[in-house]
């Protein structure tokens, strides 16, 4: 029964009940009371169903929007990207893959990937696939690819298996790069030293300022530190990451509804890069990929740390990460290059400011840490 038909039946019950009240042949008073209670219960049930239906529709709309977002990212990746089944039959292919293999996307789907491998190397492909079913780590192979009606070229095929709950490799995800283009890009990077801040306007923000986020632009930090955060259902701030020099961030890199960037250092220097510019420049994308990868690794590190139950362990490991990533050698040990408040550290460790203050005080009493005149943490070399 759908919601509309349920509502119509409910109206019918209420209408008949009203007729009975005005009828000359009335049933016992207790029966009227029971009917009234039943009618009210049905009304409440209907309201709950309507509310659940609205929530479900909103959830479905959000899921569809996210699916569309990732589909667009997949389509416009600068590198050729394919998804195959465990035997190498193409399930999905983006536009770059269609261009590289000189075949429309709709004709790529269903084709075995090995038909694009040069005949002299094709017999090696099945044994390579068997290796993927036995190991989880990413593999990169070099094959000579033969696009349709075009010249063969050497390509690097990077592949990772995706497994189901039973550990079986159900799909394979492939990134295909033409090696000649890769070599040209590498030479371009060497000549520019990969410095994206050259010839770009520098934006300066000071401590505590919220950095404006444009969905068509990403920011790249040149100097200073930016705190990336969201809000949980209680309205509490949750730390997502810390963007330091050469690290990109922006609202286009997240699907969260609430996402903010706040200057954590005394001052931060940023340059902006438009998504349109990225789409038109493989060189630019090649420079940004390692930096985006650094952000992903940082996020995974934060998630792993926040999954630990013991607050002391979370705090200790976070301090260890800060020392490793942002420490500067000084005479007394290793000094953090940025001043973090106890609340900043508490947000990062999913605990309270009071707990952080107590634990930092304990570490200070034990001689593990000290503070300089500007309240920057200094780690003793043997600590953390």
Concise overview:
The chain has 384 residues and is an alpha+beta fold. It has twelve helices and 16 strands.
List low-pLDDT spans. 184-191
Query: Care to count the β-strands?
Result: 16
Reading the helices and strands in chain order gives HHEEHHHHEEEHEEEEEEEHHHEEHHEE
Average pLDDT: 79
Structural class: alpha+beta
N-to-C span: 62 Å
Biggest sheet layout: 5 strands, antiparallel
Main sheet: which strands, in order across? 2-1-5-4-3
Question: What tags apply to this protein structure?
Answer:
384 residues; alpha+beta; Beta-Lactamase; Jelly Rolls; 5-stranded antiparallel beta sheet; 4-stranded antiparallel beta sheet; 12 helices; 16 strands; 45% helix
Question: What does the secondary structure layout of this molecule look like, with pairings?
Answer:
Blueprint lengths: L2 H20 L6 H47 L4 E6 L4 E4 L1 H7 L3 H4 L10 H4 L2 H8 L6 E7 L7 E11 L5 E10 H14 L10 E4 L10 E7 L2 E6 L5 E7 L4 E2 L10 E4 L3 E8 H6 L1 H25 L4 H16 E4 L2 E4 L5 H8 L3 H13 L3 E3 L5 E3 L5
Antiparallel strand pairs: 1-2, 1-5, 3-4, 4-5, 6-12, 7-10, 7-12, 8-9, 8-11, 13-14, 14-16, 15-16
Structure report:
The N and C termini lie far apart (62 Å). This protein has a 5-stranded antiparallel sheet. Strands 6-12-7-10 form a 4-stranded antiparallel sheet. It has a 4-stranded antiparallel sheet with strand order 13-14-16-15. The model is unreliable at 184-191 (pLDDT under 50). With 384 residues, it is an alpha+beta fold. The radius of gyration is 30 Å and the shape is flat. The chain contains 12 helices and 16 strands. The chain folds into 4 domains: 3-66; 80-178, PAS domain (Beta-Lactamase); 193-296, Sandwich (Jelly Rolls), CATH 2.60.120; 311-379, Winged helix-like DNA-binding domain superfamily/Winged helix DNA-binding domain (Arc Repressor Mutant, subunit A), CATH 1.10.10.10. It has helices at residues 3-22, 29-75, 95-101, 105-108, 119-122, 125-132, 179-192, 275-280, 282-306, 311-326, 342-349, 353-365, and strands spanning 80-85, 90-93, 139-145, 153-163, 169-178, 203-206, 217-223, 226-231, 237-243, 248-249, 260-263, 267-274, 327-330, 333-336, 369-371, 377-379. Helix 10 crosses helix 11.
